[in-house]
Amino acid sequence: MKPLPFLTRRAALPLLAAFALAGCGSLGGNDKPATGDIHVMTSGGFTAAYNDLRPEFERSSGRAVKTAYGASMGNADDSIPSRLARNEPADVVILARPALDALVAQGKVVPGSQVDLVRSAIGFAVRKGAPRPDISTVDALKRTLIAAPSIAYSASASGTYYETELLKKLGIEDQVKPKSRRILSERVGTIVARGDAALGLQQVSELLPIAGIDYIGPLLAEVQRVTVFSAGIASASKQPEAARQLIRYLNSPAAAPTIAKTGLEPLTAR
Length: 270
Known about the structure:
By secondary structure, the chain is of the alpha/beta class.
């Protein structure tokens, strides 16, 4: 038998994805066709990776995936906790791990269904073409934040850290917090691109896809806050087995290269 021709990495990925999905088992049993849409709620930190991965899952599984987007925490109308409180349809929820565990405690997510998907760091951006501020040391970061005329930060995990811990840790809360704006229901990068804020900070994976900004870099390790984004099965899910299949795919080796290119560190199942 002749050896199989060499496959490039790009050509091999669809095959790896198919193998990953095949390993998840039949959803209907007895080779019945898959039926029923899967409803996903995902927060911004995982959105870019999820949007790239979803089409392959739909193709390989034969299921349509419907998506709602929102923050991991907070009371904005489109946040994931608010959506679940309104009983919007959900099979899979993907959000910051502490917020996911809170939903488990509230009975909104199945206990034990949590799967860690990625580690996500916080970064900075300015409007495209604007001078790039220095964030290379703690002192430089403090000077940059003090000098910035306006700062935008998210209403979710990265923003909560910024407004409740980071500024206090740097000792500049009184100088910086009054000119900082908490952004609801919109990407921080979009605010910066419009010129409505001179400096923005958010999860790196949420900044990179935004046109009209320049990504400056991540927060220094000394003051960085890495967030784990995780998936769980909604307690009200009508498609729990399909939900498990999707989560296994998102956590598979086949998904890891796509996840990594969006600025996230995949926590691939071994």
